[in-house]
Design brief:
With about 200 residues, the protein is an alpha/beta fold. It has a domain of about 120 residues: Rossmann fold (3-Layer(aba) Sandwich). The protein is built from 9 helices and 7 strands; from the N terminus they run E-H-H-H-H-E-H-E-E-H-E-H-E-H-E-H. Strands 4-3-2-1-5-6-7 form a 7-stranded mixed β-sheet, sandwiched between helices. Helix 3 packs parallel to helix 5 and helix 4 runs parallel beside helix 9. The mean pLDDT is about 95.
Length: about 200
């Protein structure tokens, strides 16, 4: 039995932090896991900038409310879910993801959560488990699934490299160069074809 594990940001939706960076006028916040492999370090740094600038959960959620899935992402996901089980594995947070998941037709997502004070300040993160994408792929394999994984960033490589098949989607030139053995695609149509060939 197959199950497809998709990253969310960069594969199905725009990068939330990049969008917030544009609206808030804080260019540093455009740094993502495409640039920084250490997610914990990246999030501590982001939270520090938010505190310094006086931004909290409400400001970020206001930006997220205006974000739509990437063009073609909903159609890709709908077609993929007709053919096989699909789950989104993301290092984002419930407080960010759910408005976007609704626009994608309510697929299953495993993600993390934020620590937020009563006044909306983001003070920390609660990770679902260590190396959550890789851990989840291995757990799915332990109960009889063959995984097919798709992502765009450094934090996706564990699940991609440890799956029956794995693909990069709209990734960076640096990641392509470091992992030339991985097929990389730029359109959802190409990606759907590649997945269907290994189902």
């Amino acid at each position: 039995m197959n199950i497809v594990c998709l990253d969310m940001e960069g594969v199905l939706t725009p990068e939330i932090w990049i969008e917030f960076s544009k609206v808030s006028g804080i260019p540093e916040l455009s740094r993502t896991t495409r640039d920084e492999p250490d997610y914990d370090k990246l999030m501590r740094w982001r939270i520090g900038i938010l505190k310094e600038r006086g931004f909290g959960i409400r400001e970020i959620q206001n930006v997220i409310a205006r974000i739509d899935p990437l063009p073609g992402a909903r159609e890709f996901l709908d077609e993929l879910r007709k053919r096989t089980q699909t789950i989104i594995l993301s290092d984002t947070f419930e407080e960010f993801a759910f408005p976007l998941i609704e626009k994608l037709g309510m697929p299953t997502i495993f993600c993390n959560s934020l620590e937020i004070t009563e006044n909306g300040e983001i003070t920390g993160i609660r990770m679902r488990c260590k190396e959550s994408k890789l851990t989840t792929v291995k757990a799915l394999q332990s109960i009889g699934f063959d995984t097919i994984a798709v992502g765009d960033s450094y934090n996706d490589l564990g699940m991609i490299l440890n799956s029956k098949a794995g693909f990069l989607f709209r990734t960076t030139p640096a990641i392509r160069k470091e992992y030339p053995m991985l097929k990389a695609f730029e359109t959802h149509e190409e990606l759907l074809d590649a997945i269907c060939q290994v189902l």
